[in-house]
Amino acid sequence: MTDTRRRVKVYTLNEERQWDDRGTGHVSSGYVDRLKGTSLLVRAESDGSLLLESKINPNTAYQKQQDTLIVWSEAENYDLALSFQEKAGCDEIWEKICQVQGKDPSVDITQDLVDESEEERFEDMSSPGLELPPCELNRLEEVAELVASSLPSPLRREKLALAVENEGYIKKLLELFHVCEDLENHEGLHHLYEIIKGIFLLNRTALFEVMFSEECIMDVIGCLEFDPSLPQPRRHREFLTKTAKFKEVIPISDPELKQKIHQTYRVQYIQDMVLPTPSVFEENMLSTLHSFIFFNKVEIVGMLQDDEKFLTDLFAQLTDEATDDDKRHELVNFLKEFCAFSQTLQPQNRDAFFKTLSNMGILPALEVILGMDDPQVRSAATDIFSYLVEYNPSMVREFVMQESQQNDDDILLINLIIEHMICDTDPELGGAVQLMGLLRTLVDPENMLATANKTEKTEFLSFFYKHCMHVLSAPLLANTTEERPSKDDFQTSQLLALILELLTFCVEHHTYHIKNYIINKDILRRVLVLMSSCHAFLALCSLRFMRKIIGLKDEFYNRYIMRNFLFEPVVKAFLSNGSRYNLMNSAIIEMFEYLRVEDVKSLTAHVIENYWKALEDIDYVQTFKGLKLRYEQQRERQDNPKLDSMRSILRNHRYRRDARTLEDEEEMWFNTDEDDLEDGEAIVPPSDKMKSDDDLMDPISKFMERRKLKDTEEKEVLAKSNLSGRQSPSFKLSFSSASKASLTSSSSASLHPGSPGSPGSPGSLGSAASPGSPGSGAKSPTPTAAITTKSGIVGLVDYPDDDEEEDEDTENKEESPPLSKKSKLSS
């Protein structure tokens, strides 16, 4: 079998019953060994890749539509279509399909769409065809019953469609319609309604082409006016001929294009307004009608796009100052509808469409239109602009950056958009909301491109903050010059809320650009003026702006907040809100809770040092007391770096003891005679470096004095912890009740000086390590601080862990001579 190659587009039907374009290529038919049968193959014309490989199954129903379409289903929810550029190519492939299935190429469908029961199949096989009653006035009821009885059976539906098509039955029915209408025969008109509606449900392209032809379509609509369920007939024809006017804003020279536009409008009207809403079972019966409209729209857009003279005239008249307002209004509405039509196109076609509009100068034209006074024209221009931004924001960004090199800031396209947003006269700000969404799309780094030579994000954001941000923030700065908003009406508050929403988006997605702008222009202080607005939604917007900044944990922002005391309006709003349990209360508490949980040290200290007196009585949540505790822990670590250093060592050595250390300690323990030990004597491993006990005990004494004073605010600080592993020797710091306030320890001059052991040092003693020497032990002459030996139990002063560890103090450390493994320190 010889291959034939024809240019086609491959379409698949998606879940929303819309056709998706899978690409353009050349189709051929041939035997494929892998599929074991004759198959349709489509290879992409761009790179030769395989777009489609579909075996022609003997039982698959293929449909031929509009002379250039072949449609079929390969699975339950997988419909395919080939749209041919030439009718000859479609006929050739159709013959191949019919040849494989053993069908006559003159048919438009090769198989039944649904399997029949055996009885129906046998019954229908026994009758070669379906005979229609003569098309006469007194037989209309019989025809209506025949149509209704044939719809449930796919095979009978197919035979009915063939009979209607072959006998030219539709035109005969429409002749009877004129007779019935002239005679005011309502019964006959009701029967004709049921017959024409049934013919629509036959879902056959050949019948649609007859019904939607110029000579028949208005009569078909007339038949559908006489719904038996309505007391009075509808007046669809009157609307289409008198109310709906076709305006050629630019003369269309192609008669085929003009006829196609008329046909598509009327068919769309039939689908949307005339036909009753289909039931669940009838919806799929109208799939061919959906396809008919879809492919018509694709053709219209393609024909207009190819007519360069038409588009050139359109944009020339749009931007011509001599064009009167009514004419310009019609031109803009046409362009808006043209763009709306393009939304039915597939991505490849839509790319070509918007590229054509861009080359024709649609963005400069929109700039002219947006500068006009007519609000309707501006509204239509905004809709067109939204199509462009949603399709390709990079194209718009590139245009406005090039434009800035030639024009002043005031007349830039993007500044016109911002001004329209600010000056929206709608009380609900519907247009401003739409424009704010477009601006957010334009400044969103997620859809910005990065190339080898340049980064769109860097270039555009630099342009935006230099040329546009002052326009966007102008209403905010103008309204916050004093301690309260200058204007606090609803519409102004809504506008400021929109601006804050966009600025909050910038804080989240932009880096140094927005940071420099906020700090240099003191934006946050101005925004917090809105905390005193009488509109809760605006106060919450300003709070959300500050919360987004704090959430970045950026020290530049934090220093700016502290330097300007910017928590003050927040605390004032919190206190003025009182005990009311509302969104404002919860949002402010959440902000302070974030400081506590994330331990933002600088802001925590700032809040407690400046606002604690105002917040200390808030006890229905533990947030502020927890914040104070965090602050005190920070102060303790700052006042006693040795304690902080000891805490770091404790944590390090607790988990980093190596095997060699354990072996040394064990050997020392088992080689020590218990009887030789006196009370209060400690067995400790040797250390390379040692410090005097005074260095250890003095900061601990100070720490315990402070802890005694703040016993009500802190948890118990003496904890017991058992060391795991094979460690046997251990010691315990025991404090009597009389000695908690002051701990003293005498150290012998003969003790070796040293320092805390390193993680791998045999001299380190796990949890008992401290800034004093873990290798030094002292026999206390008084019971104030008794160090006693107990096997397996270690008691120590435990300090709260901190995320940031400071380096230990290594000053005044001296090397000690190496000691024997069995060294024992005694009094």
UniProtKB/TrEMBL annotation:
<feature type="compositionally biased region" description="Acidic residues">
    <location>
        <begin position="799"/>
        <end position="812"/>
    </location>
</feature>
<feature type="compositionally biased region" description="Low complexity">
    <location>
        <begin position="728"/>
        <end position="755"/>
    </location>
</feature>
<comment type="similarity">
    <text>Belongs to the SMEK family.</text>
</comment>
<dbReference type="GO" id="GO:0006974">
    <property type="term" value="P:DNA damage response"/>
</dbReference>
<feature type="compositionally biased region" description="Low complexity">
    <location>
        <begin position="761"/>
        <end position="784"/>
    </location>
</feature>
<dbReference type="GO" id="GO:0030289">
    <property type="term" value="C:protein phosphatase 4 complex"/>
</dbReference>
<dbReference type="GO" id="GO:0005654">
    <property type="term" value="C:nucleoplasm"/>
</dbReference>
<feature type="region of interest" description="Disordered">
    <location>
        <begin position="710"/>
        <end position="827"/>
    </location>
</feature>
<feature type="domain" description="Serine/threonine-protein phosphatase 4 regulatory subunit 3-like central">
    <location>
        <begin position="142"/>
        <end position="633"/>
    </location>
</feature>
<comment type="function">
    <text>Regulatory subunit of serine/threonine-protein phosphatase 4.</text>
</comment>
<dbReference type="GO" id="GO:0072542">
    <property type="term" value="F:protein phosphatase activator activity"/>
</dbReference>
<feature type="compositionally biased region" description="Acidic residues">
    <location>
        <begin position="672"/>
        <end position="681"/>
    </location>
</feature>
<dbReference type="InterPro" id="IPR055236">
    <property type="entry name" value="EVH1_PP4R3"/>
</dbReference>
<dbReference type="InterPro" id="IPR006887">
    <property type="entry name" value="P4R3-like_central_dom"/>
</dbReference>
<dbReference type="InterPro" id="IPR016024">
    <property type="entry name" value="ARM-type_fold"/>
</dbReference>
<dbReference type="InterPro" id="IPR011989">
    <property type="entry name" value="ARM-like"/>
</dbReference>
<feature type="domain" description="PP4R3 EVH1-like">
    <location>
        <begin position="5"/>
        <end position="101"/>
    </location>
</feature>
<protein>
    <recommendedName>
        <fullName>Serine/threonine-protein phosphatase 4 regulatory subunit 3</fullName>
    </recommendedName>
</protein>
<dbReference type="InterPro" id="IPR051137">
    <property type="entry name" value="PP4R3-like"/>
</dbReference>
<dbReference type="Pfam" id="PF22972">
    <property type="entry name" value="EVH1_PP4R3"/>
</dbReference>
<dbReference type="Pfam" id="PF04802">
    <property type="entry name" value="PP4R3"/>
</dbReference>
<dbReference type="InterPro" id="IPR011993">
    <property type="entry name" value="PH-like_dom_sf"/>
</dbReference>
<feature type="region of interest" description="Disordered">
    <location>
        <begin position="672"/>
        <end position="696"/>
    </location>
</feature>
